[in-house]
Amino acid sequence: MKIYFLKLLLIILTLPHSIYSQTNIDFYKAFESIKGDSILKHLKYLASDELEGRGLGTKGIRLAANYISVKFREFGLKESPSTNNYFQEIPFIGSTTLNSSEFNVYTNEQNISLRYSEDYFLYKSGQQTFIPVPTELVFVGYGIVAPEFDYNDYQSVDVTGKVVVFLDSEPISDDPDFFNGREITQYSFAEVKRQIALQRGAAGTILIPFERYSGWEIVIKDFAKEDIRLAYDLTSNLSVIINPAIAKLIFDDSQYSFDDVIQMHQKHQMKSFPLKTKISFRGSFKERAFVDKNIIGILPGIDDKLKDSYLIISAHYDHLGIGSPVENDSIYNGTLDNAIGVSVLIELARAFSSLNKKPKRTIIFIAFTGEENGLLGSIYYTDNPVFPLHKTIANVNIDGIAFFRDFESVIGVGSEYSSLENNLTETAERYQISIEKIPEEFQELTSFTNSDQYTFASVGVPSIIVLEGLQNRTKSREEVLQSFIEYFELRYHTPFDDLNQFIDEVAAERHTKILFDLCYHLANSVDEPKWKSDSPYLKARLRSIAEKK
């Protein structure tokens, strides 16, 4: 027994003084129980070829769901009160657009048939997508209405019953008070543009990939696959992404050409105007219906006043499944995106469950499905929350984990919108690491809108994802940056994001411990995270509270 307490004292003395002076032995025992080899054990199964890339509606994702639920049961997490099990079942529809679909562009002189995959793809598809007669087009700049920036692309045009055309970018800005300067805002998100258009009565949307994609071959990589949507999200509105090489066609004979539009963008002089061309669309589709699951485990809080408030810790466990072969490998294992993230989620659930004195607030652990297909699992949860969203204090999402064990900085993606910035800063100080912003090279890839934390923000729940920064004790900033670039260029969303790459279990363990500390203090804090007064998500929070959603 003496040896045990001496070892525990040694653990405490090796932790930062600012931590152990504020917490207790129970925290340290759980903290030190987090092990990199445990994370890798989960990872080696979840990212194995046996699970075939965990594509939606497949045997592989069902195996992954069962594995996670078994772990939640082992840890003694409570089941969802709405289902009496760990599963939130979600009905999906999968739709594949066939080459026999008919998309016609009508100019003053001719009718032109566009070719599916070569000239366009559908963002959303299904039997309801149908425009039988030639329909007018209106160019609406970036397709943005942003009252907080006093910006409205729809102010001078009527789009009711028409198809709108917009660029995939947003206004160029060096002013942090106008579209956040060089940082990407939610308004560059294609789904946000689409919703704005539909709210104004548009019959459909055509997006021109002006900046988001470096070439049509990258678009093909993203869109040449089955479109999967929530079964209740039937679309009757055309939603197209069109090849920029033929974008000039739809500006034919109009007041301004596509080249003029590019000049408008560069000169900060964007205009909206009606187009002379019209389009029609008659789709052909192959469809299937299936059910997949979010996995939800609950650790009830113990404080009489705070236990009915909730912290959600999440990670998505789906990936791309089996796809086009690259060097004879067709399994898109998704090891770092995001089998490792859900492996960390499992380890966090075990560590929190091991606490003798559980946190004051209730913690909900959720492994989401459908993230790769448009955050569908988290959207379904926020549409059908197990516990009220207005009582959910925050979401800490995990999508990727540290590459290098000697990292000395972290990035709180989304922390700038809320007081979670303060919580992360306090955690970082306890470990003597710094906070840095998203490197400019990765603004788009690591945008706040790119994973499930955005879903929670959009319904008013303060949220954050914590990534590894570029500062490192043993590697230069350039070395770390180059490693990230190589991952995104060579392995991300390819069959090479598999178990053959080096996974640093020490880095994973250290990152997980930092997340444990952040979540532990959030779950025990009397103060809830708050949106900042200029946050675009504040109104959603106030609405949620008013409606008691």
Structure in words:
The protein folds into 2 domains: 27-92 and 289-547, 3-Layer(aba) Sandwich (Aminopeptidase); 99-283, Glucose Oxidase, domain 1, CATH 3.50.30. The protein is globular and about 80 Å long. It has helices at residues 2-14, 17-20, 25-33, 36-46, 59-74, 190-199, 216-223, 244-250, 258-266, 335-353, 376-383, 420-430, 453-458, 477-490, 505-524, 538-547; strands spanning 87-97, 102-106, 111-114, 120-124, 130-139, 145-146, 151-152, 163-167, 204-208, 227-230, 238-242, 273-282, 285-299, 310-316, 321-326, 329-332, 362-368, 392-398, 409-413, 434-435, 463-468. 32% of the residues lie in helices and 23% in strands. It is α/β, with parallel strands linked by helices and 549 residues long. The protein has 16 helices and 21 strands. Helix 4 packs across helix 10 (335-353) and helix 10 packs across helix 15. The strands form 4 sheets. It has a 9-stranded mixed sheet, with helices on both faces. It has an 8-stranded mixed sheet with strand order 3-2-12-5-8-9-11-4. Keywords: Aminopeptidase, Hydrolase, Protease. GO terms for molecular function: aminopeptidase activity; metalloexopeptidase activity. This is Putative aminopeptidase. Residues 294-516 form the Peptidase M28 domain.
Task: Give descriptors for this structure.
549 residues; alpha/beta; Aminopeptidase; Glucose Oxidase, domain 1; 16 helices; 32% helix
